[in-house]
Design brief:
There is one protein chain. This protein has 326 residues and is α/β, with parallel strands linked by helices. The chain has one domain: Metal-dependent hydrolases (TIM Barrel). Helices cover 49% and strands 14% of the residues. It is built from 17 helices and 8 strands. The protein has an 8-stranded parallel β-sheet. Helix 9 links the parallel strand 4 and strand 5. It is globular, with a radius of gyration of 18 Å. The mean pLDDT is 97. Bound molecules: hypoxanthine and zinc ion (ZN).
Length: 326
């Protein structure tokens, strides 16, 4: 029987998690008070009541507005500390954290304060409960390419923490092809490459992410299901998808969790993983995404174990670390 406890106990890696998307309303107000920042919401309850989204953009508007409270290295450390504790309690043993440096440097926050704050919490979690993690620098695809180039230049000085690059923010109208040069430079420097594609954007964006960015994993990728040839290619090339079921429902990328393509992709031989995206906004951390899928789609124990195992195999953890977790 697939109990909540059994799903939480499965050792798993979180491969699709925006650290800024772990900012819970309570912490947002604490940091606002501490930093003298005024949020445009009167209370925790009023902010939480806004978590009712029509699409990706309506979420992003709130996501960027709320992160104004994150100013110092200590703020990023506290945000990450709280996330890592919750994730660990839901079976996450390794976490690859997306972060959006352009959204912080544009507000006057130093790039290194973001990396060092998150890094402080990662070090603490490793010491205290043996959890491992690293950072993936995401480029904001709705910002100019020159801004992404600047973020990469800063990131290349921090490969002590940063293991890869990603692509996020508003997808439609901002195809992966725009970032071919930035990704080429990142890969030449030895960074891994992943990209959001096929969340709201068409299957063609998934193809571009593979062909032009040489993405090793596709974040979301759910619209691939509309293109059988692409599904066959993902399976054939063993490209993992980092799927985020609760996010897809909240942002109305899928009308209902019962229609979610996760199990159809799995049945077609695609390597799928279950992740939380922006858990403070979408109603659940890693384990809760598993329990929601079980309730809506009737996940079997075999599927749950396979998805958790795939998350570890598809991670960028060291060979030794993967072996220890498998
Ligand atoms: N999609 C695109 N960009 C994002 C997301 C997402 O789900 N979360 C944070 N930035
Ligand atoms: Zn995402």
């Amino acid at each position: 029987p697939l109990t909540d406890d059994a799903l939480l106990a499965l050792p798993k890696a979180e491969l699709h998690l925006h650290i800024e998307g772990t900012l819970e309303p309570g912490l947002a107000f604490e940091l606002a008070a501490h930093n003298g920042v005024t949020l445009p919401y009167a209370s925790v309850e009023e902010l939480a009541a806004r978590y009712d989204f029509d699409d990706l953009q309506s979420f992003l508007d709130l996501y960027y507005a709320t992160m104004a409270v994150l100013l110092t290295r200590a703020d990023f450390a506290e945000l990450t500390r709280r996330y890592l504790r919750r994730a660990h309690a839901q079976g996450v043993r390794h976490a690859e954290l997306f972060f959006d440096p352009q959204a912080h440097t544009a507000r006057g926050v130093a790039f290194d304060d973001v990396v060092d704050g998150i890094g402080d919490a990662l070090d603490e979690a490793e010491r205290e409960f043996g959890m491992t993690g690293s950072l993936i620098l995401c480029f904001l695809r709705d910002q100019p390419v020159a801004s992404a180039e600047e973020a990469l230049t800063a990131g290349l000085k921090r490969t002590d923490r940063i293991v890869g690059v990603g692509l996020d923010s508003a997808e439609v109208g901002y195809p992966p092809s725009l970032f071919e040069g930035v990704y080429a430079r990142a890969r030449a420097a030895g960074l891994h490459a992943v990209a959001h594609a096929g969340e709201e954007g068409p299957p063609e964006y998934v193809r571009e992410a593979l062909d032009l960015l040489h993405a090793e994993r596709i974040d979301h990728g759910i619209r691939s299901i509309e293109d059988p040839e692409l599904v066959a290619r993902l399976a054939q090339e063993r490209i993992p998808l980092t799927v985020c079921p609760l996010s897809n429902v909240r942002l109305q990328a899928t009308p209902d969790l019962r229609d979610h393509p996760l199990l159809r992709l799995d049945a077609a031989g695609v390597r799928v993983t279950v992740n939380s995206d922006d858990p403070a906004y979408f109603g659940g951390y890693a384990g809760q995404n598993f329990t929601a899928v079980r309730d809506a789609l009737g996940l079997t124990e075999d599927q749950a174990r396979r998805f958790a195992r795939t998350s570890i195999e598809a991670s960028f953890a060291s060979t030794e670390r993967k072996a220890a977790l498998l």
